[in-house]
Amino acid sequence: MRILKEDFLIRSGEFAELKEFSDIINEIQNAIKTVTWNSPDKFVINPKRKGNGVVPIKNNFIEDLKRYNWQGEVRMTLAKGMNPGPIDVIKDTSYGRFAVEWETGNISSSHRAMNKIAVGIIQKQIIGGILILPVKSFAKYLTDRIGNYEEFAPYFCMYEKLQIAEGVIGIIGIEHDKEDENVPLIKKGKDGNAKK
Amino acid sequence: MRILKEDFLIRSGEFAELKEFSDIINEIQNAIKTVTWNSPDKFVINPKRKGNGVVPIKNNFIEDLKRYNWQGEVRMTLAKGMNPGPIDVIKDTSYGRFAVEWETGNISSSHRAMNKIAVGIIQKQIIGGILILPVKSFAKYLTDRIGNYEEFAPYFCMYEKLQIAEGVIGIIGIEHDKEDENVPLIKKGKDGNAKK
User: Fold this and answer.
1) Whole-structure pTM value
2) Exposure pattern of A53-63 as b/e (b: 16+ CB <10 Å)?
3) Which residues of B touch A157 (CB under 8 A)?
4) Count of H-run helices and E-run strands, chain B
5) Which among A108, A193, A194 has CB closest to B111?
6) Which residues in chain B are closer than 8 Å to A171, comparing Cβ atoms?
7) C-alpha torsion angle, residues B9, B5, A117, A83 (rounded to 10)
């Protein structure tokens, strides 16, 4: 899988200067790159519009990060008054926990996920967090209504206006490596979109 | 209808000191109070769990505000790169437009609505905005999955951390006046929740 976009909306304080932080970013980048589909070393997608599920992709990413001592599906409270909820993957650092969320829902759920990361940093429950979501050219082959990087980009300026002295908020836009109409579709179901 | 909660997460700059601003708040408060159901002067709800729709309530509120020269369902762009979308009600002031959104979707959509207000202020497309949503004790009688004030409250601290020199971000939590099992349910449909 390829990283097409990478933005740090907040990168403040001591932690962001440490090797520990750049190691974390490297681990996330490597784990994304090693997510494959229908190929030993590439992510090859069947380019059917809205044809592919997203949860299996996320699961592969989490498995990859576990090799670097990340923990998957940890339940934690990111703010006072908030019920504990699952974070996709976290890693403990000397400055606190670092969280990664892999978007599988619609664009509104990306807003909530990113707000949760911001509140977690403000309330010192985490030292940083990154949201991973597909770019538009990838999203069009995935589950209907999944949020994409371009759709969220107009909101980056809000997070950049947050007064945060210590912490990291990042966003990564991902894409498939290759298209091939002959490979199987990725299974749908439990996609994280609101079901009625 | 009753106002149970009212919070200003941002209230900065000259506009927030003007009579024009306090007039706007009064108009919103009055329009909420004059939203009635099954009674000439009260909002009487059938206390059936998840039994009532929300769109007709919002429409009544918008009609009430129109008496004070507000415009309903105006399409506008709140940020560069964002497609124009409908705002529930707006009013033009000497400092720019003021927006009000009445939540009819799930909690994620409240996050997006509030982020949109914040971005609109940062990019100087609006001077302020208010999000109206039900408190928990009212939401339980409405459409399944509708967001409520208490669920959103843990995120207020994020908006309070925004560096905004001029503008207003507010949130209002509303409730029915009275319960009565004998009154008709409010019709559902077009509720703004994500449908699959």
Assistant:
1) 0.93
2) bbbbbbebbbe
3) 79, 119, 122-123
4) 6, 8
5) A108
6) none
7) 160
User: Quick one: how far is CA A33 from the chain centroid?
Assistant: 13
CA–CA separation, A112 and B130 (whole Å): 18
Tokens of A36: 């494959």
Rg from Cα positions in chain B: 16
Cα A151 to Cα A114, B174, B189, distances in angstroms: 14, 31, 27
Q: How far apart are the first and last CA of chain A?
A: 32
Q: Which two tokens stand for residue B105?
A: 């979707």
Buried b (16+ CB within 10 A) or exposed e, B145-184: bbbbbbbbbbbbbbbebbebebbbbbbbbbbbbeeeeeee
Angle at B123 between CA B74 and CA B71, to 5 degrees: 15
Name residue B74's beta-bridge partners: B87
B7: phi then psi, degrees, rounded to nearest 5:
-130, 135
Beta bridge partners of A173: A5, A133
Length of chain B: 196
* Per-residue model confidence as pLDDT tens for chain B (196 residues): 999 999 999 999 999 999 999 999 999 999 999 999 999 999 999 999 999 999 888 888 999 999 999 999 889 888 888 888 889 999 999 999 999 999 989 999 999 999 999 999 999 999 999 999 999 999 999 998 899 999 999 999 999 999 999 999 999 999 999 999 999 999 887 654 433 2
Q: What whole-number distance in Å separates Cα of residue A111 and Cα of residue B113?
A: 9
Q: Which residues of A touch B136 (CB under 8 A)?
A: none
Q: Kindly state whether B79 is in contact with chain A, defined as any CB-CB distance less than 8 angstroms.
A: yes
Q: Within a 10 A sphere around the Cβ of B48, how many other Cβ atoms?
A: 12
Distance, in Å, from the CA atom of B96 to the CA atom of B125, rounded to the nearest integer, reads 7
Question: A with B: how many residue pairs have Cβ under 8 Å apart?
Answer: 90
Rounded to whole angstroms, how far apart are CA atoms A124 and B162? Answer: 17
Does residue A160 have an active-site annotation?
A: no
Angle B36-B168-A77 from CA coordinates, rounded to 5°:
85
Of B80, B108, B150, nearest to A109 by CB-CB distance is: B108
Considering only CA atoms, which of A79, A137, A126, A134 is closest in space to residue A100? Answer: A126
